[in-house]
Amino acid sequence: MTERPPSGPDDFAPTGSRPASQWPESTRPAELPQSAFGSTLFSSTIFDAPLSGFPAAQDKPAVFDVCHVGVVLRAVVFVNVVIAVGALFAATGFAAWLTIATLGFAVALPGVLLWLLAACTFKKALAGWPLAGQWAAAIALGAVSGSFGWLLGAVTGLDPFDADRWLAPAVAGAVMAGVVYQWLRLRAQARLPADTAAKLAELQSRIRPHFLFNTLNTALSLVRLDPARAEGVLEDLAELFRVALTDTGEAVSLTEEVELAQRYLAIEQIRFGERMKVSWDLDPAAGGARVPPLLLQPLVENAVRHGVEPSPDGAVIRVRTRVKLGRAVVSIANSVSGGPSRPGNGIALRNVRERVRLMHDVAAQFDTRLDGDVFRVQIVIPL
Q1: What is 247-382's CATH topology?
Q2: Which of 24, 188, 287, 303 shows its CA 20 to 30 Å from the CA of 351?
Q3: List of residues 6+ apart from 225 with CB closer than 8 A
């Protein structure tokens, strides 16, 4: 038996196509060590190298990311509650307590807002500081903010504010800032595992053998019949891998997420043909909303898995984006049959809900409901 020489990238090229050595520079596998698709086909290094999409141990969480309505409300309520409780120790009756608490609120509110404004403005610069420097900045800024509130009361002539008695509000501001900063640290650290779990779930979804093999078999079957369409399938698959394995940052635009979902559904459309009908109703004004990466793809995948696959007649998937009351509304709906679908564990929905909540807090909404034979997911996020 004749021994076959070691295989190389050219051995994977379909008959009649150009060898990999003659591919354009931008598509040669050897020239794309960072391409997830190329590495998967021609090298095993993708499974040995660390994934850039996952937070490393040394990554610094975005502690000073306080530019959210929910964070502002919680900080203001916390400080005011502390003042109200503290006023009980100095008051001799309800009227006295109300007076002391009101004066405390007048000092605290400007100070808290100044601290949050400064933290939001300089969050990127402060995030690069070492932990000790972040603590020092948070406490020093708290002292300045507390003194600012007190001095503001003194300048406006509110009694009993005395500009010379700045030490007490400065110390109180520093202590309050330290408590708020520690809460922000715990909140940011809790976000990293959620992001990692979500990316891991989507990575596993992307490289599930049945999806990968189905896509490759689809492309191979199209190579001779429709080379251009086969190329489009592989481009869509490569983009799905690229997003899954590349660090896309803290947020992407809704337009980018829609494009990724379109690529995924384009692949599945070839597989299911007429059984899958997709309707897109997209409002360009909503495309600028910032969302967590890998947000829509798991939702449309759920629609395919639980709507199209189990139904012999197929299903309709509708994706709609619009602007309502200054917020972007995203709706993914799919018809469901009476037959059983693949059993699911709800991980995709939980991951998406958690990531939306972590990014936009109380400013976002995530709802799922079954309206007759239509399952609908709706996400509302600020613009």
Answers
A1: Heat Shock Protein 90 (3.30.565)
A2: 287
A3: none
**CA–CA distances in Å: residue 375 to residues 115, 251, 257, 370:** 44, 27, 21, 4
Domain ranges (residues) in the chain: 69-190, 247-382
State residue 336's pLDDT score.
Answer: 87
Choose the weakest-confidence range: 117-126, 208-217, 228-237. 208-217
Mean pLDDT along residues 8-15: 37
In order of 56, 124, 340, the CA distances from 60 in angstroms are 9, 11, 45
Contacts of 117 (CB under 8 A, 6+ apart): none
Kindly report, residue by residue over 371-381, the tens digit of the pLDDT.
Answer: 888 999 999 99
> C-alpha 364: how far from its chain's center?
12
Helix/strand/coil (H/E/C) assignment for every residue in 89-131: HHCCCHHHHHHHHHHHHHHHHHHHHHHHHHHHHCHHHHHCCCH
